[in-house]
Every structure is written in C-alpha cells, then in structure tokens.
Amino acid sequence: MNKKIRSLTASCLCNGVKMIIKGEFRPIINCHCSQCLRTHGNFASYTSILEENIFFKSKKTLKWFNSSSKAKRGFCNKCGASIFFKRSGSRAISLSAGMIKNPTKLKTVSNIFCYNKSDYYKIYDKLPKFKKYTNT
Fold first, then answer.
1. Which residues pair with 85 in a beta bridge?
2. What CA–CA distance (Å, rounded) separates 59 from 38?
3. Looking at the domain that runs over 5-115, which CATH code has it been given?
4. 49-74 burial string, b = 16+ CB within 10 Å, else e?
5. Other C-beta atoms lying within 10 Å of the C-beta of residue 82
6. Among candidates 22, 30, 29, 31, which has minimal Cα distance to 4?
7. 7: which strand partners?
8. How far is the C-alpha of 31 from the C-alpha of 21, rounded, in Å?
9. What is the pLDDT of residue 1?
10. 38-96 pLDDT, tens per residue?
11. SS3 letters for 60-97?
12. CA-CA 20 to 30 A from 97: which of 22, 47, 51, 131?
C-alpha cells in the first residue's frame, strides 16, 4: 500500500472532539459488521493510525464504550458522532473517515464482514470483499 506521512485535521459534528493527526494513514476499509451497522446506522469507513500520532485540540466530549471484551469505541457525548474503534492492546486506532477534513487523499481499498451486511443495500463497488478483518 502507498502510505505517506501527512498531517490531517478531524473533528466531530459539534467540534467537542478536534484533533490533528500526523503520520501514516492506512487506506480506508468499509466495515459491514453488526457493531458498525448499529453504531453508525450503516456500514462504517475507517482509516487507522498510531494512537500516539493524534494530537487533540479538544476532547472534552470524548467518551469511551467497551463494545466487546476485545475492543472499545470512542464517541462524542454531545453530538453522538462515532469517532474511534480501538482493539485492546493495539498501538493503532481506527478513525471514522468522515471525521477527517477534506481533502484526505485516502483511498478505499476493501470491504470487510460482508456476510453481516444488511439486506437493504448491495455492495456495487469492485473492491475486494472479505468475511472478516484483513489488514489490506
């Protein structure tokens, strides 16, 4: 994958969580798992970066929810934005791509947990489709 060092800004809808992220961003992966469907209201698009590369300008409304024994999710307790997905013990953290200010210059490379997707939509893109997470 073509990873480049860059600096991007991101925020939730109400700006209660604002950050600058510097470093290498993983390309975007669309996740169709049941947790993302329930958290986002549809599939979720995430990039991933090292957590140490996030510099918060504001995080007064950032709250965490232990969504399973293996991961937690960060969200804004004011506007409700779903912001982060973090696996226990990982140095990397997934960031909802919609939080990032354009232009991101990131590309979507795959769809994961496709067997779990809702029946009200089809995946028409020609990107690779996987039954589980794959570090593409």
1. 73, 94
2. 23
3. 2.170.150.70
4. beeebbeeeebebbeeeeeeeebebb
5. 21
6. 22
7. 22
8. 22
9. 45
10. 988 899 999 999 999 999 999 999 999 998 899 999 999 999 999 999 999 999 999 99
11. CCEEEECCCCCEEEEEECCCCCEEEEEECCCCEEEEEH
12. 131
End-to-end C-alpha distance for the chain, whole angstroms:
8
Kindly tell me if the per-residue pLDDT of 2 is higher than 60: no
Structure tokens at 97: 């791509």
Alpha-carbon gap, residue 64 to 88, rounded angstroms: 13
Residues 6+ apart with CB under 8 A from 110: 29, 30, 127, 128, 129, 130, 134, 136
The Cα–Cα gap between 17 and 33 comes to 25
At 121, which amino acid appears?
Y
The contacts of residue 2 (CB under 8 Å, 6+ apart) are: none
**H or E segment to which residue 112 belongs:** strand 108-112
Query: Which token pair is 64?
Result: 């965490």
